[in-house]
Specification:
- With 57 residues, the chain is mostly helical.
Amino acid sequence: MRALLWLLLAASVLANVFISTFAGWTGALQIAGSVCTGAVLLGSAAGLWLTRPRSEG
């Protein structure tokens, strides 16, 4: 599960960089792409945080 969340986190960062620099999208399309990749990034980061190993003490 954690491996999938790490993969989603990395993929969303790479997709966001691609959308904002290389895709050539403008206006609403770029905003929609960034919002979608940002939602995936935040979701995977939250999942990683919730499934982190907890130390006793």
